[in-house]
Specification:
alpha+beta, binds FE2/S2 (inorganic) cluster
Length: about 160
Amino acid sequence: MDAGDKERLAAIYQQTIGAGESIIAALQRLQSEFGYIREDCVDWLARRAGIPAAKFYGVVTFYTQFHLAPRGKHIITVCSGTVCHVKGAARIVDRLRRDLQLADGSRTTRDMRFTVEQVNCVGACSIAPVVIVDEQVLAKQHPEAMARVVKQYQKAGQNE
Ligand code: FES
């Protein structure tokens, strides 16, 4: 952790916990500043606040909005709730993992361009199976359609 990180953390502390706000608010700021919940940052905040780090991690692990590892530029969220599962969500996930060469349990590609995540019902069962790419909701998906979407993003990425 460098001096710049410490300065950013001090600002986060002052504007959240130091101002009477919750641990959740501090963690949201931390994630938005650093991209994910960095362990060394949590430890710094916990020490500064005089609150056990375990309390912070309790919050981090309770809420799905927090991420303990860096995520890719594009987030592909496959709904794996019951209806989407019955309509083939697992095949979509398999295809995505194969096309993006995600080995073992990794969710993010090595080039940090894509992260593939699975969630429970996103509340749009009538258009299952549902995939959300960044903010875009894609209805009635199937493996080949997803392969095309990934290719489009990869193509677009070559020009970035
Ligand atoms: S199960 Fe996927 S939207 Fe409901």
